[in-house]
Amino acid sequence: MEVKEAKPPSGYGKPPWEFKGSALYQLHLVKSETARAFIPKEFKLVEAFGYTLGGFFLASYDDSPAGIFDGLVVIAGIVWNPPTSCAWAARVLVNSDEACVHGRKVGSSLMAFWKY
């Protein structure tokens, strides 16, 4: 799906950005070989017995640098990011042009932001 490039708002400021709203985080085991397809080879996958922890993050933001929007983040697995670990987003879906543009502008070049 092609996303029209909306004029990015100038109010992003510098990180950290503040997002206010509610969210649901659902975790489940993902086979390491499945997760690895979405995670760059230079990152060490946190795994045990052939599995990592993946899932999804469903959020409804009432206030954010990109305005009001809903988003779904698909978590491929957990990667080691010294001195801690973090969830790796395989896909980010949002329902706002502005949130999509914001994510593409400030997000990782490895993450894909789509408007649904």
UniProtKB/TrEMBL annotation:
Coiled coil: none
InterPro entries: ADC_dom_sf, NDX1-like
Transmembrane intervals: none
Identification of the protein by name: Protein NEOXANTHIN-DEFICIENT 1
Source organism per UniProt: Rhododendron griersonianum
Upper classification of the organism: Eukaryota, Viridiplantae, Streptophyta, Embryophyta, Tracheophyta
